[in-house]
Design brief:
Layout (H helix, E strand, L loop, with lengths): L3 E3 L9 H5 L5 E2 L8 E2 L3 H4 L5 H5 L5 E3 L18 H10 L13 H11 L12 E5 L2 H21 L1 H6 L2 H9 L11 E8 L5 H15 L6 E4 L1 H9 L1 H6 L6 E10 L21
Antiparallel strand pairs: 1-4, 2-3, 5-6, 6-8, 7-8
Bound molecules: flavin mononucleotide.
Amino acid sequence: MDSFTVDPEKCIKDGICASVCPTRVIRMESPQGVPSPAEDFEDNCLACGHCVAVCPTAAFSLDWLSPEECPPIIDELVLIPDQVEQLLRSRRSIREYKDKSVERYKLEKLLEIACYAPSAKNTQPWHWTVVEDAKEVRRLAAMVIDWMRSVTKDTPRIAKSRGFPRVISAWDEGVERICRGAPHVIVAHGDKKYGFGAEDCALALSYVELFAPALGLGACWGGYLYSAANAYPPLFEALGLPAEHRAYGAMMVGYPKFKYRRLPLRYPPRVKWIK
Ligand SMILES: Cc1cc2nc3c(=O)[nH]c(=O)nc-3n(C[C@H](O)[C@H](O)[C@H](O)COP(=O)(O)O)c2cc1C
């Protein structure tokens, strides 16, 4: 049975592990006692690892996760607010890419980081499909155009409201506005019946986008691509997505052609304060 052990020599009985447990399946029976698993531990533990991560004395081990397996948080690496603000404000949707492939280890790193995004009940429902070959990205973009042409033919008003005629015209003039000439595309997908798939995958893809500049990369949401993947079976099949899945998002990735110099402004927050 999945549970945990506490090293009585190291445990200082501060009860922090029990306090931070999201489902309260860690019990402090008495102020002097060490923590013990609640009866419903196995059923309700989210496997989030908070208990191991928060223990100041490394006394707490889950059966499947020891403190030694969890890298320490290095104080010297904590960013100051100005650095975080610039990181978040300078993130841009990149739509011009160098004609250069991204090394596999960098794509793997992006996905490794993406998996640290929050997810409802720590479900981590995302699956990834990475299109590594630029020619394949172009072929998929062409399929999106096929889909847009058929939507434009059948429901011209809907197509117009979604900007399809302009994208198709651009394509016919040799400008690819689906994947923007990116050498790679990452598609996040998961169980189509899962209620938080869209939120969880969007957050994970946001991590991809935010981390990309640290590797010298740029990224951009591929809204047309994943909408088409869900609506156009030939594209869904070309991506090799399982029948029970839905594409929840797609991100173009590559080396940016241009460097941004300034931070554009945004609307101020539209906020109502409730007291
Ligand atoms: C769900 C979603 C779908 C998007 N789809 C596309 C797309 O298909 N093509 C594109 O060039 N940009 C796409 N974008 C990028 C937005 O246009 C962009 O975030 C917005 O213009 C703000 O610019 P910034 O990201 O550089 O701040 C998408 C963004 C989101 C969040």
